[in-house]
Amino acid sequence: MNLLSYLFVKRLYPFYEESLRKRKTYSYFTEYNKNMGMDREEIKNIQWNKLKALLAYSYENVPYYKECFDRLSLQLDDIKSIEDLDKIPVLTKEIIKSRFNDLISVEYKDLVLVKSTGGSTGVPLKFGYSRESYERRTAVMWRGYSWGRVIQGDKTLYLWGADILPVGVFGKYKAKLHNYLFNRKFINTFNLSSNNISEYVNQINGYDAKVIIAYTTPLFLIAQYILDNKITVKQPLSILTGAEPLYDYQREIIEKAFNCEVFNTYGSREVMLMASECEQHNGLHINEDHLIIETVKDNAAVTGVSGNVLVTDLHNYAMPFIRYENGDLATLSDSECSCGLPFKKLDSIDGRSLDCIKTPSGRLLPGEFFPHLLKDFSVIKEFQVIQDRLDHLKVIIVPAYEGGGSDIANIKTIIIDNIGLDVEVEIDLVEKIDKTLSGKHRVAISLLDGEA
Q1: Where are the domains of the chain?
Q2: 306 pairs with which residues across the strands?
C-alpha cells in the first residue's frame, strides 16, 4: 500500500464516512476484515446467529412473513439450522412486485430506501433496503475487492454503466468531487460501438489506472480490439470483472491484452457484492458473514452442479430478502481454497436461468453453451441466441468483417450438429445487438414463458 492509499484508508475514508456522512461503513469494513481471520465454525456461528435474529424480526414486523409462517403453521423453533431454510418458501420477483408494501417492515415505513434494477430482462424491479444494509454492503464490497488487489484510494478506472436519467448540474458536480476524492474515473460503456472503440482505448491509456473494474462484455470487446490491432496498453495491477458471467475464453483474451490477472466477482443491485475471486482463481468466495447463498435444482439443495441461486440478505431489516430467487445459475463448491479464507466458494457463475435453451428432445442448454461452442469463429464480433419456439432458434450475429459467408454457414451447421436436427436454426446478420436497460449483454434469451 502506497502512502496516498494508506492516508485514504486510514484517514480520509473514515473521516468522510464517520464524521461527514455519519455512516458506519468504515466500522463495518473493519469488522468484516477481522472475520477473515476466523475459522470455518466461527463464520458458520456468525451466519446462524444473524439468520435467527432476521427470522425473528421478520415474523414480528413484516406482514408478508408473518402471514407466510402462519399459513404454513411454521414456528421459528422449526428452523434449527441454516439447512432448515428450505422450510421457508422462495421469494420471487413476482411476489416482490405484487406484495411490495407487505414486505416492508412496519418499523421502516417512513425510513425505507428504494432502488430499482433493470434486470437482465430489462423489466425494472423496485426493492427496499435499510441504511445499515447499504453501509454493510459497501463495506463487504471493499473487502471482496481487496482479494483482487483493489485498495481504497488506488487510482481506479471503471468501465461501467451510467445513469440513464439526468442527475442535474448539482448532481454532476457532486459526482465529480466524489470521484476525485476516491481517485477514480467512470467511463460509460453503454455508448461503446465499433465506431468509437478506439476512443475507449485512448481513455484507458490516458488515465493510466492501477486497477480496472469493468462490465465483462465491453471489456472483452475492447481487449479483442487491442489484440487485433496490436495496440500496447498500460498494464494495470489487476482487473475486476462483474455484472455478467466471465467465461474462460474471455479471461484469456483480457489477460493477454492487458498483461495482468483478471479477478471475477459476483453481485447484483439488490444485494451488491455476493462473492469474489481470490488470487488462487479456483472459485469465488461467498461473503457468508453477510449473506447466505443456496443453490437448488428441482426444489432440492445441490452442490457441485449448477442450480438456481437463492440469496438471503442477513442485514436488510427494512425489506427482508429471505431465499430470494434472483434468476441466476451458479455452482456451489464443496472444496476448500488454499488461500486460507474461511468462506465457502462458488465454483462458477453459470448465467441466468432465463438464458437456458430447451430442445424438443428435452435437452436443457445453459447460456454458456453457446460461447464455448462458437468461441473459435473469428467472423463473430458479437452474437445472441433467441429461442422463440421450442423448435426454433434465431442466432443474431454482428460480423467482425465482411465476406465471411462460408464461416457463417459453418456456424449454422455446427449449432445443428450439437443441438440436434429437431431445432430449426435461423441466422440473422446485424450491425448492433441491443443491451438491456442495465447495460448488459444477454448471450441467450428464451421466450418460452418459463418452459425453459
Answers
A1: 3-350, 356-446
A2: 331
295 neighbors 284 (Cβ within 8 angstroms): no
Buried b (16+ CB within 10 A) or exposed e, 365-381: bbbbbbbebbeebebbb
The whole-angstrom separation of Cα 189 and Cα 185 is 13
Give the CA dihedral 383, 388, 390, 391, nearest 10 degrees.
-70
Of 367, 216, 339, the closest CA to residue 277 belongs to: 339
CA 133, 142, 326, 221 dihedral sign is: positive
pLDDT per 10-residue tile (average), the chain, 452 residues: 61 70 86 96 97 98 97 95 95 92 95 74 71 95 95 88 54 74 83 83 94 90 94 95 86 96 94 96 96 94 93 97 92 92 93 71 68 77 88 91 83 87 92 68 75 40
User: May I ask the CATH class of domain 356-446?
Assistant: alpha beta
CATH of domain 3-350: 3.40.50.12780
The three cell numbers locating residue 76: 421459528
User: Residue 150, SS3?
Assistant: coil
- Torsion sign over Cα 346, 146, 50, 315: negative
- What's the rounded Cα separation, in Å, for the pair 451 and 239? 37
Q: What is the pTM of this model?
A: 0.78
Measure the CA–CA gap between 425 and 74, rounded to whole angstroms: 49
d(CA 138, CA 132): 10
Q: How many residues appear in the chain?
A: 452
For residue 448, the tally of other CB atoms under 10 A from its CB is: 14
- How far apart are alpha carbons 352 and 450 in whole angstroms? 12
Q: Report the alpha-carbon angle 90-28-292, nearest 5.
A: 20
Q: Are 168 and 155 in contact (CB under 8 A)?
A: no
- Count of CA atoms in the C-beta half-sphere (13 A) of 448: 22
The CA-to-CA distance between both ends of the chain, in Å, stands at: 48
Q: Take residue 226 and report the three cell numbers written for it.
A: 487491442
Fill in the DSSP letter of residue 312: E
